[in-house]
Amino acid sequence: MSESTIQIALVLPDLLGTYGDFGNAVVLEKRMTWRGIKAEIVPINYGQPVPDSCDIYVVGGGEDTAQTLAVKHLREHPGLQRAVTKNAVVLGVCAGIQIFGESFTRADNVTHPGMGLIDSTSHAGGSRAIGEVIAEPAGGLFEGVLTGFENHQGRTVLGPAARPLAHVKVGTGNDGSVEGAVQGRILCTYLHGPVLPRNPQIADLLIEWATGVKPAPLDLPAVSAMRAERVKAAS
Amino acid sequence: MNDSPARLPLRTAAAVKLGNLSSTLSQKMGLGAGGMIGGRVALKLDPQALNRLTQGRRVAVVTGTNGKTTSTMMLARAVGALGEVATNHSGANMPDGHVTALSKQPDAPYAVLECDEAYFPAVAGASNPSVAVILNLSRDQLDRVGEVRTIERSLRDAVNKLQNCTIVANCDDVMVTSAAWNAPKVVWVATGTGWHHDSASCPRCGNPIRWQGEHWHCTGCDLARPHPNWITADEAMITPEHQKLELRLTLPGKFNQANAVMASAAAHAMGVPADEAVRRLRGVSNVSGRYRTIQRGGRSARLLLSKNPAGWSETLTVVKEANHPAVLVINAQEADGRDLSWLWDVPFERLQGRTVIASGERATDLAVRLTYAEVQHTIVPDPLKAIDQMPQGAVEVIANYTAFRDLNARAAADE
Known about the structure:
The complex is a heterodimer of chains A (235) and B (415). Chain A has a six-stranded mixed beta sheet, sandwiched between helices. In chain A, strands 5, 6, 7, 8, 9 and 10 form a six-stranded mixed beta sheet that branches. In chain A, strand 7 and strand 8 (146-158) form a beta hairpin. Chain A has helices at residues 22-33, 64-76, 79-85, 95-100, 195-198, 200-211, 221-234; strands at 6-11, 39-44, 56-59, 89-93, 103-105, 111-113, 120-137, 146-158, 166-170, 178-179, 181-183, 186-189. Chain A is 29% helix and 31% strand. Chain B starts with 9 loop residues before the first helix and ends with a helix. At the A-B interface, helix 1, helix 2, strand 7 and helix 7 of A face helix 7 and helix 12 of B. Chain A: Its EC number is 6.3.5.13, 3.5.1.2.
């Protein structure tokens, strides 16, 4: 491991932090620090320029108006888009999956341009999807099931350049069958919980992408116990 | 029912009678506390019951995310200076709870109703209140109640429709200020408390909100902190007549000082002199079991209720002073919100170095949060057993809604 510190950008936590999304950044930071990898969280608030120099970008869920403002800000300050061209790792949750796409259409039928980072479009579904989700990994991307809590109106359709993160067993995800999206080093999901405390294997996958090294095993009994409980409760 | 404030139509009177009978039966048969079932029966039989039962009374409605039960109890005590008050004491804060409370005291000329924020438009519409109190608005039970901005908008629409109603609003809370901004008559209270994490952007125009000390303004529209009529000072309040009154509350914490000043301002709007209001509400010490201390084998366990990030953040401040061991109890039933993502918005890092037990139906979710907060802990799902495992002396027990309700009932049964 190099001497440099892995910088985790927490993107607009004041707009896109409604569902405990700060937890995803904490999990990345602690799982690196505990293994002797230097890491720090860099919050980027609304009104501030977005740097393109961070290693990992974490984007969370937000309310409708906040989401619209967030896209506007991220398009006006395209540091995240520049970072993607330099191979940065990105996690997009809920609103994240919608704003990273080509476009998203709200319940009022107004279509907003997305950031064009993943090959997808989102639109409002008939009913709000709320509840526990279980999904199986797609294409052997990670081990163990994906668990989380979804609470969203949007439905997402992936184009050929994006592939699903997982296949839904319980819950709705993107469309009732697939969940999330992966394109290059951008990983998106509808799942809260937050998603990384629930799914340490995804956290370690992002760390591996950022550092280029598969991280050493890290056994946290509380995490295994919680995963087992949640999977049992949802099944 | 003959001497009710406004004579009830036969249908309402019969509905109320049957409702009261159901409450009594529910209590006798051990089915519940009877706080809601009576109202539920009465509302089924007469959907207009809430409107009819409030006619002829002077009504105050109290809403907001945190502090509703405490503020309602304080306001009811204060308004007691004017006459008998009907009030829903046990947190049964939806229309069936209101109907039950009003049915039990048909002659009370005053009513002080705690109201769930999602039901505020319906309840305010039906009860024609003289005073509506909006304490604060922050994220809570996102899967049940919905997002904060949706609630703010529905409160805004509701208060704008109220005739002859004084809105008592917290001007240190951007969401509350926006909700009350266009109401014809508003009394602004500086509470010194507010959760800023849901108001980085203006709820009206979306532009950033800028804070300078206690003052704040929107950078895009005219929404800004209004000049307060009442001010919460350190352990005291300043009235619109610039009189400084010591609070000397029994309840701990800054948050309860804010509740007391909001309640005093509301009581004042109902016609109670400020000094009398404070004198009366000062004695509130045990709010549906909250803040009470239970004794278990040499342990004095203080029971504290916290339901959401803003509430937990405040309670962690209250328990900060003494380094007592803490039992944290988390459930995620429907009334709590089933999504526990909010645990990551609570600054549990402040408990580093303490003796902590994670408890409740979702103790393992809490244990994961504590692990990443680097707080040493053990897991004991049963909260009473968790208290018994603590060293003798003072113990702080912080629980969320159903966890608190169940623990409080079991502790009361043990006494």
